[in-house]
Design brief:
The complex is a heterotrimer.
Chain A lengths: L1 H18 L12 H18 L4 H9 L1 H22 L5
Chain B lengths: L1 H9 L6 H23 L8 H18 L2 H7 L2 H24 L18 H33 L8
Chain C lengths: L1 H21 L3 H22 L2 H25 L7
The chains are: A mainly alpha, B mainly alpha, C mainly alpha.
């Protein structure tokens, strides 16, 4: 059984390594993300939001929906742990 | 930490006043740095999530060095629940408010109709309000996760 | 010279990952996992993603290690397998 698990892990790792061959290199200016999306943010974000840190502008404004549900996920985790574990002795 | 301290008391070294003194000096600076990270997120790396985790970690450090009761003296269970819910409500409520005022969901420039600051300034201001909400929610939830996991839920004795 | 730093950090990341899953002592495994998080934080800071590095340093290395240790003290310290 252990050998089978090792084999499955090795095959999955090999497939993942084969998949990374098609990625764009790190910092490649010709990759799809760097040719369409990034120039828009770099050219327009400071004028449209007056926030010099582009990461904050994207996280808080352009992709605010993502950040909202990230907060909701953390909130749900906290509420789940409180409702399962907390039983104060009073 | 109490159990660790009991184990340490059985050893010849005993419990350490150095740790308590160092933590007492460090906590105000950690909290100041957390507030700086939240507020200065527009200009430097950081933001609500990281600053909230730093603020929560200062309370966790207090609970590790002293006791869980000390933490609940400074930051009561009730305040924790209120702040956590308020943080999540600020974010979703701001989104709902912008939708009611006629913009898209989380389109902060619609808030210009309440207080006229200019739509671009309101987008900057809306990001700041949202970051404060995220910081409050994350701080309270990190502290309450530590309370429940370290004490097993009965909230009287920490690690 | 930056590729040398990259190589050292990546080698240490692999060593820490293997050590985390092979250690029998769960407390030691949690600490080594914290070291792994800090190495990933260094890697991201070196690649220029400062916000992600900040999040990894606070959440991954700071709070999650504490939560792991708190959970271990409620159960047993030795791994069964």
């Amino acid at each position: 059984m252990k050998n089978l698990a090792l084999l499955a892990t090795l095959v999955t790792g090999a497939i993942l390594l084969y998949g990374t061959k098609d990625f764009a290199p790190w910092g490649d200016p010709g990759s799809p993300a760097a040719t369409h999306l990034s120039p828009y943010y770099i050219e327009n974000a400071v004028e449209q939001t007056h926030v010099p840190n582009l990461v904050t502008a994207v996280l808080g404004d352009y992709r605010g929906y993502d950040t909202m549900f990230e907060t909701v996920v953390i909130y749900c985790a906290g509420m789940a742990v409180v409702s399962v574990l907390r039983r104060p002795k009073r | 930490m109490k159990r660790l301290q009991e184990r340490a008391q059985n050893r010849p070294t005993g419990e350490s006043p150095i740790i308590r003194m160092a933590v007492r000096v460090m906590i105000p600076f950690i909290q100041l740095f957390g507030l700086y990270v939240i507020v200065h997120g527009h200009y430097s790396p950081g933001g609500g999530f990281q600053g909230g985790v730093i603020l929560g970690a200062s309370f966790i450090l207090m609970a590790l060095a002293f006791d869980l009761k000390t933490t609940t003296d400074y930051f009561s269970e009730k305040a924790n629940a209120i702040l956590g819910n308020a943080g999540a409500l600020i974010f979703t409520g701001l989104g709902a408010l912008t939708a009611i005022l006629g913009g898209l969901w989380l389109d902060y420039s619609a808030l210009d109709r309440i207080i006229p600051l200019g739509p671009i300034e309101w987008r900057s201001m809306g990001i700041f309000l949202v970051e404060v909400g995220v910081g409050l929610a994350v701080m309270s939830i990190m502290v309450s996760l530590y309370w429940d996991l370290a004490s097993g839920g009965d909230m009287d004795e920490g690690l | 010279m930056i590729w040398l730093l990259d190589l050292i950090i990546l080698a240490l990341v692999v060593v820490c990952a293997v050590a985390t899953i092979t250690l029998r002592d769960l407390l030691g495994a949690a600490i080594v996992f914290g070291v792994y998080s800090f190495l990933m934080c260094l890697l991201w800071a070196e690649m220029g993603a400062v916000d992600v590095a900040f999040t990894e340093a606070t959440v991954g290395a700071g709070v999650s290690t504490i939560l792991f240790i708190a959970a271990i003290f409620r159960t047993t310290r030795r791994s069964k397998d």
